[in-house]
Design a protein that fits this description.
single chain; 145 residues; mainly alpha; Cytochrome Bc1 Complex, Chain D, domain 2; 7 helices
């Protein structure tokens, strides 16, 4: 009986430690980043007024290529998606809920990063049409930030 109790406690302890090690944690806020700036003409762009937020949500959560945005950025845009957990700062996925960081990122800068990726981070170049990129940006800026 004593041996079973010790084994049970050891199993619970091990399970707790392993699950907490794999728990998706929100990246720090503010997020230090030295992402290359978009060219000035693009950084000033904002085509979100004509964008479709519902389509942006669908792309973010399901259909983006090479993979859905939520896989790294998480369901709520906190930068804690299943694949994003593999990256540590400063390569961690952007936490869109971090107001102090995101207020410095223009819609045009977001467009540039989604279209071209971000060297030195885990952000890959996405295979989306320009309109789809603006749809995603509108969704992020209106629902996740």
């Amino acid at each position: 009986m004593k041996k079973q109790l010790v084994l049970f406690i050891a199993a619970i302890f091990t399970f707790t430690m392993v699950s907490s090690a794999y728990a998706a944690k929100k990246p720090e806020c503010p997020q230090p980043r030295k992402t290359k700036s978009a060219p000035a003409s693009i950084a000033k762009k904002d085509n979100t007024a004509k964008a479709n937020k519902a389509n942006g949500k669908k792309i973010f959560h399901k259909t983006a290529k090479p993979m859905a945005c939520k896989m790294c950025h998480g369901d709520k845009g906190e930068g804690n998606g299943k694949l994003g957990a593999a990256f540590k700062s400063p390569k961690a996925p952007r936490n869109f809920t971090c107001a102090s960081t995101m207020k410095k990122v223009s819609p045009g800068q977001m467009y540039w990063i989604i279209k071209n990726g971000s060297k030195g981070t885990g952000m890959a170049k996405m295979k989306l049409k320009d309109k789809e990129i603006w749809d995603v940006i509108k969704y992020i800026r209106e629902d996740l930030m």
